[in-house]
Design brief:
By secondary structure, this protein is an alpha/beta fold. The chain has helices spanning 12-21, 45-49, 62-72, 90-102, 115-121, 132-145, 157-185, 190-197, 205-208, 232-249, 254-268, 280-285; strands at 2-6, 25-29, 40-41, 54-57, 81-84, 106-109, 112-113, 124-130, 146-153. Strands 1, 2, 3, 4, 5, 6, 7, 8 and 9 form a 9-stranded mixed beta sheet that branches. Strand 1, helix 1 and strand 2 (25-29) form a beta-alpha-beta unit. Helix 7 packs across helix 10 (232-249) and helix 7 (157-185) crosses helix 11 (254-268). The longest helix has 29 residues, at 157-185. Bound molecules: nicotinamide-adenine-dinucleotide (NAD). Nicotinamide-adenine-dinucleotide binds next to helix 3, helix 5 and helix 10.
Length: 290
Amino acid sequence: MQIGFIGLGNMGGPMAANLAAAGHEVTGFDPVAPYPDGVTPAKSGKDAARGRDVVITMLPDGPILRAVAADIMGVMTKGAVLLDCSTVDVDSARAVAADAEAMGLRPLDAPVSGGVGGASAGTLTFMVGGSDDAFKTAAPLFEVMGQKAVHCGAYGDGQAAKICNNMILGVTMIATCEAFALADKLGLDRQAMFDVVSTSSGYSWSMNAYCPAPGIGPQSPADNGYRPGFAAELMLKDLRLSQQAAEAVDADTPTGQLARDLYERFVESEDGRGKDFSALLPRFEARSRG
Ligand code: NAD
């Protein structure tokens, strides 16, 4: 396929490189990031988008997505797929998709999980919102860039799935870290804590696959000085998006709100920026009640 790829940062760069390596003709644009091997540089977003079968965007946030989409939609071929893989607010995803549809394009929102490692290895999970036929067109690209693509429903539903998943992740990581800190103070051995919880009803991805205690469980950022991994500020971004969405639809999400507040404090007032989101464990360890 002829693909335009806009936003070649930490995630977009390796995703575009994988598409090129799989034999697709990829033309990319990014004002800052380097161009990966196999990707033909374009002079602008418009140049990257003009005449392509699929245009993929992988951008920092909703306002930038809205600006880029407004810039390129007019030059895109009618019927082309506009595939946004960024994590953005549900309102921006739905607004961009509605505009794209009105201009004869086929929009999909397809945020990912799997991080930079998954982007490089081509093992991302895509959570996709949009029409069946657009999903079918993009399916071969999801296969190259990822290991799984779930068609969640109409456009915006991909972003909805992503922020609900990451709200659970943030909350369970906090619970796992505070439980380890409590177990420490109770004198319970960390390995024993892991062996029990990972096979009992407290198990979760945070405990079993990404254990925040160094030297316990499978390799995780805790074993690497809490270097990300998934940075605390990216978790904060997703928790803010989930609260923004919850406010918009009047959903009661008290632990999601607490998780947002805690990561906000950790990133903005403490030393959490640049650390993995599991670095809440040493934070709790160093604190006392109250
Ligand atoms: P990044 O900042 O490394 O990349 C974003 C790129 O967009 C940058 O290179 C920037 O120059 C480019 N950009 C900004 N404005 C542009 C414009 N007008 N035109 C073209 N390019 C423009 O961020 P990232 O880590 O690659 O993340 C991208 C998206 O993926 C974000 O929405 C993020 O939340 C999401 N995400 C990231 C991860 C992760 O682990 N990094 C995991 C899942 C989802």
